[in-house]
Amino acid sequence: MKKIIGLLIIFALIFIVGCSHTNNESDAGVGISSEFPAPGFEDVPEAIVVDADLETGVKEFNVVAKKWEFQPSTIEVKRGDKVKLNINSVDVTHGFSLADFGINENLAPGKTTVVEFTADKTGTFTFFCSVYCGSGHSDMKGMLIVNE
Ligand SMILES: [Cu+2]
Fold first, then answer.
1. 146 C-alpha vs ligand 1 centroid, how far in Å?
2. Alpha carbon of 126 to ligand 1 centroid (Å)
3. Strand, coil or helix: 42
4. 77 alpha carbon to ligand 1 midpoint, in Å?
5. 104 with 121, same domain?
6. In angstroms, what is the span from residue 94 Cα to ligand 1's centroid?
7. pLDDT tens string for the chain (148 positions)?
8. 11 vs 146: CA distance, rounded Å
């Protein structure tokens, strides 16, 4: 699924490059040739960044922790993915426990806590708040889905 999105991005970049070249040619036709190198230099590094992201296999998610939920509450990856969660607690101290992967982190208020692990087994795993945070604490949970 992510590979398909990656391919679409690459096609989009090729399309954009194609368009800018067309524009440059018409610009050159009316004598504005000084702009010609600049778009080319911009296009090349963008394409390299997309390839590098696909190769690292890191799936990065920004997660908000607040009374009494995680947003998003469902995180879906593929087995073997390196998962990086940037969890931002926006109100009080919460916790992030993903016991099946040996993770239990304190989430200090107003800070972003980075949680990293490799999704080395398939299945559906529950993560939950591990620091008591009020009446809705026991409902503050979500799901990690690891597909084959
Ligand atoms: Cu809690």
1. 24
2. 14
3. helix
4. 25
5. yes
6. 5
7. 555 445 444 454 444 444 444 444 444 444 444 555 555 544 443 333 333 355 677 999 999 999 999 999 999 999 999 999 999 999 999 999 999 999 999 999 999 999 999 999 999 999 999 999 999 999 999 999 999 9
8. 28
